[in-house]
Amino acid sequence: MTLSQITLDGFTTFTSMDVELSPGINVFIGANGTGKTHLLKVAYSACDVSRTRANLAEKLVATFMPYEGRLGRLAHRRATSTNASVEIHRKGAKLGLAFSNHSKGPDTGNVTGAGKWAEAPIECAYIPVKEMLANAPGFRSLYAARQVHFEEIYADIVDRAYLPILRGPPDATRKKLLSSLQEAIEGKVVVEGETFFLRNKHGKLEFSLLAEGMRKLALLWLLIQNGTLQGGSVLFWDEPEANLNPKVMGALAEILLALRRLGVQIFIATHDYVLLKEFDLLAKDGDDLCFHALYRDEEGLVRRSATSSLAGLDHNAIAETFSGLYDREVRRSLGG
């Protein structure tokens, strides 16, 4: 069951934000500091606690890592006292959290709707900007035993990557997706002990020697193969373009659109024009593609505009930047 809405009041960079979500692909763009990653982390935390039945406040603190684990530091910064709230909606359920800037530990937050929310667990995965599989050996045991300064999303994605494959042969759609990714990474992923390898006709290459962009595609292959990403699941991916050759963007967009058609809801935060345009060109009717542009108004408050068409999107910082570069190139060629 897909997420339908996120409502934030006084939370981190947002004074007030109400985001209606597409059941398909949600692409968030905007200048640095407008809260794209924060929206992804809030939605991911809500999905994850539906599985683990953990406290939402504890998950948000582990995901955002505020100073000294103080929940109140996730409240929007003002000169006066601030109340903050988070609500995540899906059909038939709403998960909420209320706290203030004076809140200390996660136990000082007021969570509502947790019982109903956990009745339908949501499989999910969050792929962070920094690829983790090359650093996976020993990481889980270290994270479990020590207070290491890593956001919990890193431990979560390593845990999901280590899951064994589903029983039985993959269905036709998953098989096609896996084949497309195998072609892109030129092999398959295998795990020996806690070390990930890419295996192809030349042998095995450990992930530490593999280009980081290829590791991200290999991680996607693993998540599809082991059943983390299947119908009804949710994928969050922060800057998938990081360290990926622009030539791969078309194939990546095709794979993500195929995942959506499989029934996966997708959230992406990106700064990449090529990826945006590939989505715009490749999406079909029924793909439920939505572009969300986050921007600051004249008072410095974060606002949102949204549309299913890239051409119709207001406050598109990426397109405006590329248009500016083109104008400068034209002026230079004309001797201006």
Structure description:
- With 336 residues, the protein is α/β, with parallel strands linked by helices.
- It has two domains: 1-123 and 230-336, P-loop containing nucleotide triphosphate hydrolases (Rossmann fold, 3-Layer(aba) Sandwich); 130-229, no CATH class.
- It has helices at 36-52, 56-64, 114-117, 139-145, 152-161, 172-185, 212-225, 249-262, 273-282, 317-333, and strands at residues 3-11, 14-20, 25-30, 83-90, 93-100, 110-112, 124-127, 188-192, 195-200, 203-206, 234-238, 265-269, 289-296, 302-307.
- The strands form three sheets. A six-stranded mixed beta sheet has the order 7-11-12-3-13-14, sandwiched between helices. A five-stranded antiparallel beta sheet has the order 2-1-4-5-6. It has a three-stranded antiparallel beta sheet with strand order 8-9-10, covered by helices on one side.
- A hairpin with a 2-residue loop joins strand 9 (195-200) and strand 10.
CATH topology of the largest domain: Rossmann fold
Euclidean distance between termini CA atoms: 56 Å
Shape field = globular
Q: Quote the beta fraction.
A: 25-35%
Count of strand segments:
14
Strand order of the largest sheet: 7-11-12-3-13-14
Helix content estimate: 25-40%
What oligomeric assembly is this protein in? single chain
Structural Rg: 20 Å
Task: Specify the structural class.
Answer: alpha/beta
What is the H/E order? EEEHHEEEHEHHHEEEHEHEHEEH
Q: For this structure, what is the CATH class of the largest domain?
A: Alpha Beta
* CATH architecture descriptor name of the largest domain: 3-Layer(aba) Sandwich
Largest sheet: 6 strands, mixed
Put simply, the count of helices is 10
Q: What is the CATH homologous superfamily assignment of the largest domain?
A: P-loop containing nucleotide triphosphate hydrolases
Query: What is the averaged pLDDT score?
Result: 92
List the uncertain runs. Answer: none
Q: How many structural units, i.e. domains?
A: 2
